[in-house]
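Researcher: Sequence recovery benchmark, item below. Answer with residues only.
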């Protein structure tokens, strides 16, 4: 087996079946699809016509966590390359899998980042980059456009279009399950551990898919507010800043976290939310400090 496509899913069977449909149309044939279903009461029959497909491995998980689900996928996978995607993507290019896998002919490449286009933003491929994305890769990824249109090297990719060598993923400990549910920065943590050990990831804009971003299901199943970011996201961001952000750029990462969760347009335009956000920030900091003290929860074979 060459490629194992790992898809965590929750409350999104219709979107998931469309994603599976796209994968089964690929020209590249030496792959398997691993579904880790966190839906309450879900079972393989929920996949409809696909539940008996020999390319699909179905695993039911009671742990509500994207990171834990990906670790389950790593353990089940038979492919030499792991490809992480979301359960609500559209893949139009029949060479998508090949565009990921072909780069692994180079033994120096341990991971490939694809180009995810956001459907809700009507996002197109762009060819300009902010000057800050040319800085030290430890921090440049904060400013790198995920819809960039040129080949390059990056330190971090998004977990809805990211492939890695299975042996390399295991060697760095897979995902850290301290990033609970669909926590912010979980893939950045994983990618930075990978790039620090094996070198940068290759970014290929031709490994392209469309991320639907369905408002129902997925990580949105765990959001408790329309305006304030979920607690597990705040905890994840602070935990990342404390745990893995390079000391040289720690202040910059802390400021990025504040911009995303506190100093954004939604919160600034609703003063009534300030106290809620402040309380959540303080509580999340305490939880993140506790997680850091207890240590990472990584993949165990």
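Model:
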């Amino acid at each position: 087996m060459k490629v194992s496509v790992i898809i965590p899913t929750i409350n999104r069977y219709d979107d998931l079946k469309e994603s599976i449909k796209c994968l089964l149309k690929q020209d590249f044939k030496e792959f398997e699809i691993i579904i880790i279903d966190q839906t309450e009461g879900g079972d393989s029959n929920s996949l409809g016509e696909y539940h008996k497909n020999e390319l699909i491995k179905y695993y039911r998980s009671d742990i509500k966590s994207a990171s834990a689900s990906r670790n389950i996928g790593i353990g089940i996978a038979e492919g030499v390359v792991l490809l992480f995607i979301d359960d609500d993507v559209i893949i139009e290019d029949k060479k998508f899998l090949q565009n990921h896998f072909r780069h692994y002919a180079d033994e120096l490449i341990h991971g490939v980042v694809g180009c995810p286009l956001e459907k809700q933003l009507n996002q197109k491929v762009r060819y300009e980059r902010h000057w800050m994305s040319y800085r030290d890769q430890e921090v440049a990824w904060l400013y790198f456009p995920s819809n960039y249109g040129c080949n390059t090297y990056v330190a971090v990719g998004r977990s809805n279009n990211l492939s890695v060598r299975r042996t390399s993923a295991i060697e760095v400990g897979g995902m850290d399950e301290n990033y609970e549910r669909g926590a912010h920065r979980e893939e950045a943590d994983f990618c930075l551990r990978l790039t620090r050990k094996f070198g940068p990831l290759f970014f290929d804009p031709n490994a392209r898919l469309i991320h639907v971003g369905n408002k129902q299901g997925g990580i949105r199943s765990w959001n408790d507010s329309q305006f304030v970011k979920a607690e597990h996201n705040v905890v994840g961001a602070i935990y990342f800043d404390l745990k893995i952000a390079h000391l040289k750029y720690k202040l910059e990462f802390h400021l990025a976290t504040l911009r995303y969760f506190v100093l954004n347009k939604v919160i600034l335009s609703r003063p009534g939310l300030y106290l809620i956000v402040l309380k959540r920030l303080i509580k999340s900091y305490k939880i993140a400090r506790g997680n850091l003290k207890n240590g990472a929860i990584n993949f165990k074979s």
